[in-house]
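Notes from the 1:1 (GR / supervisor)

We went over the backlog. Supervisor wanted to see one worked example end to end before approving the batch request, so GR pasted a single chain during the call. The sequence is below; no edits were made to it. Supervisor asked that the structure be written out right there so they could see what the output format looks like.
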Amino acid sequence: MIDTNPASERHERPVPRWRASLLGRIGIVTLVGAALALTLFPFDWLANVWPAYGAVFDRVFNSAASHHIGHTVLFGIVGLAILFIVPALARHPWRYAALVVAGALAQEAIQALAKRDWPNSGDARDIGFDLLGLALAFALVWALQRAVYWKQGAATRSLSAERDEEGSDDAEGSHADPGAAAKHQVIRDQ
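Structure output shown during the call:
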């Protein structure tokens, strides 16, 4: 059977069928757009123009700690989405870092524009929590990939160990065909 997958020619892992069929090109664009909208949307502005949302927003983010946790969780979710949509970024941490730093800076710039204010030290602190969430997402994906590869490697090692044991048994003649055993006996007798 001839492998027509172009990914195998470039020595890359092929895209799983479920991901290719589930997402497709339009699905990927939609997911990237949703992640960007979630990241870049000025939620402070929405809280000011929609009083019902503002009441919920103020209740959920009533302290500085909850605000920082919110930034970390939001950007952690966005980081996981980015790494799910574009899994190659997990193998290129510097590209991922450049992308997420640009996203965090853009988000804070849009927030400052929505408030009609200049960025300040609070925005720098928020960027730090944004990057923390994105770094935690990368670390989680990296750890999960290593666990899967380790598990696959352990299974491969156990299979090769079983083959080695079978090979040593064959050398002793326990699994060899009778004709081969007879040839070894003739050689020993001479």
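Supervisor's comment: DSSP finds eight helices and no strands in the chain.
Batch request approved.
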